[in-house]
């Protein structure tokens, strides 16, 4: 029986437990990663608003097919939008071009607005597609798929170990924080607070380092010599080919619109 | 006479700027022996285990495992197939996401194919009464379950002998009972560090105390031999 832990820092199962089963879940993770990359590459290389609108529509359609948890996905997309919102707001006023409208004496240019819309479309299209195709993978499956796609072993190992020990380190942090509270520590804006937090972070680093050494020792005792064997096998099936073809057609359509207009 | 698992002669070790924790220690270990290694905290018991596994390098002395003198890393690579080491903290040992992957880790390192490794892992889990744990996520196991899974990970390599570092630590009564029952049923020779006298009395047939860097063989009570 598989068990799930939802609200941990490291969400093992990603979004996979938060939505109903869908076609996308059954696709080969490697294919999903490659196609998401292709889609992202396509999106960032387009500059016409109709083509990008079409691409965004494609991403939305994909998200609907994958039956992603709408609220969760939207929240993540909005979180990304929050990063670029100020850039989008200021772009019309900072880009040189034909004047369009005024706000409190500042002139917005036509080209600036266009730039802002293009960036907005690109960002949302890419993030939505990645959340749909890659974000629905379990974190560990994602790492294994990367390994199978010949991403360097060291990077994959780093990711796997981060996933495994994030929670252990987090628990260690919580334990120390609790013992601080148990001795009546309450954070304030003074030297004592900052020094205590400094000790906390420092101790966390030292403990993590020590633990990493013990983990490596334990691995050596079981015959580890630099190579991790990954157990799951992925199969590229007929439905993966169909999906790839659909994605390629969608990509070409967007490109045709981009070049035609 | 039963076969000798290892022979340690004049083994010494000290940490920088401190008194030696092991001072010219001699120790022979034979098949069928379940040795209790006791001593106060910081006496050097765990250090001794690390030296035997080649995780720390001895300052002086000789370690011979299965008739093979062990000095460098390649020597110990072979030795680690003979002797399984159960770490004090299960979280140090369980680094794979799922139980089955962790138990299959050792066999894979020994050059078994994926299917063989999975088969061995399943069999080992079943032999410890852990059927159905294959897909469980390691960090969500309880303390007792973690302990048994780490034991499965070590046993899956089919070692001749086991080093157990405080195996009953932090286990509740049931988990502790279960572990003791499993350990008493295993054929391997064992070298056990523990501060749990009842557990040692039940499992072990030889006692050594480590103090002031020396091994002191302790008389063994008849009652414990029966247990």
Which class best fits the helix and strand makeup of chain B? alpha/beta
| Record field, number of beta strands of chain B | 10
pLDDT below 50 for ≥5 consecutive residues: which ranges of chain B?
A: 222-227
Secondary structure class of chain A reads mainly alpha
Any idea what the radius of gyration of chain A is?
24 Å
Strand content of chain A: under 5%
What's the pLDDT, averaged over the residues of chain B? 89
Shape of chain B: globular
The CA-CA distance between the termini of chain B, in Å, is 23 Å
Summarize the main sheet of chain B: 6 strands, mixed
Helix segment tally of chain B: 9
Helical fraction of chain B:
25-40%
Strand order of the largest sheet of chain B: 6-7-8-3-9-10
Structural summary, described in words:
The complex is a heterodimer of chains A (261) and B (227). By secondary structure, chain A is mostly helical. Chain A has helices at 29-45, 49-65, 70-94, 110-133, 139-148, 153-182, 191-221, 238-260, and strands at residues 99-103, 106-109. In chain A, strands 1-2 form a two-stranded antiparallel ribbon. The longest helix of chain A is centred in the C-terminal third of the chain and has 31 residues, at 191-221. Chain B contains 9 helices and 10 strands.
What's the gist of this structure?
Chain A is mainly alpha-helical.
């Amino acid at each position: 029986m598989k068990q799930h832990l939802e609200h941990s820092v490291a969400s093992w199962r990603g979004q996979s437990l938060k939505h109903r089963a869908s076609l996308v879940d059954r696709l080969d993770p490697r294919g999903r990663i490659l196609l998401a990359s292709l889609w992202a590459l396509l999106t960032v290389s387009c500059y016409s608003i109709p083509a990008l609108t079409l691409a965004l529509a494609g991403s939305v359609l994909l998200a609907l097919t994958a039956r992603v948890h709408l609220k969760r996905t939207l929240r993540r997309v909005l979180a990304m939008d929050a990063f670029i919102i100020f850039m989008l707001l200021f772009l019309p006023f900072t880009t040189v071009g034909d004047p369009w409208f005024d706000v409190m004496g500042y002139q917005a240019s036509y080209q600036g607005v266009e730039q802002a819309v293009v960036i907005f479309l690109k960002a949302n299209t890419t993030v939505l597609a990645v959340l749909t195709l890659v974000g629905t993978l379990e974190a560990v499956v994602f790492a294994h798929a990367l390994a199978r796609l010949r991403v360097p072993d060291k990077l994959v190992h780093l990711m796997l170990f981060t996933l495994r020990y994030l929670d252990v380190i987090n628990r260690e942090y919580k334990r120390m924080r609790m013992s601080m509270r148990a001795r009546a520590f309450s954070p304030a804006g003074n030297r004592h607070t900052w020094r205590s937090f400094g000790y906390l972070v420092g101790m966390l680093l030292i403990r993590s380092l020590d633990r990493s050494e013990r983990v490596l020792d334990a691995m050596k005792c079981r015959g580890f010599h630099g190579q991790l064997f990954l157990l799951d096998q992925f199969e590229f099936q007929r439905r993966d080919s169909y999906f790839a073809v659909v994605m390629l057609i969608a990509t070409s359509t967007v490109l045709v619109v981009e070049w035609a207009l | 006479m039963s076969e000798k698992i290892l022979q340690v002669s004049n083994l010494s070790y000290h940490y920088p700027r401190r008194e030696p924790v092991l001072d010219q220690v001699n120790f022979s270990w034979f098949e069928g022996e379940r040795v209790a290694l006791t001593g106060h905290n910081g006496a050097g018991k765990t250090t001794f285990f690390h030296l035997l596994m080649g995780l720390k390098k001895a300052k002086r002395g000789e370690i011979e495992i299965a008739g093979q003198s062990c000095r460098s890393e390649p020597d110990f690579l072979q030795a680690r197939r003979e002797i399984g080491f159960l770490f004090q903290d299960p979280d140090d040992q369980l680094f794979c996401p799922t139980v089955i992957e962790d138990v299959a880790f050792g066999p894979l390192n020994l050059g078994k194919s994926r299917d063989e490794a999975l088969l061995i892992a399943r069999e080992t889990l079943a032999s410890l009464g852990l059927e159905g744990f294959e897909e469980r996520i390691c960090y969500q196991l309880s303390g007792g379950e973690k302990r048994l899974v780490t034991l499965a990970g070590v046993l899956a390599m089919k070692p001749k002998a086991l080093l157990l570092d405080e195996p009953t630590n932090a286990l509740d009564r049931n988990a502790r009972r279960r572990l003791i029952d499993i350990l008493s049923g295993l054929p391997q020779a064992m070298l056990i560090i523990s501060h749990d006298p009842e557990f040692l009395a039940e499992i072990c047939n030889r006692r050594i105390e480590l103090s002031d860097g020396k091994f002191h063989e302790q008389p063994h009570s008849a009652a414990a031999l029966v247990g």
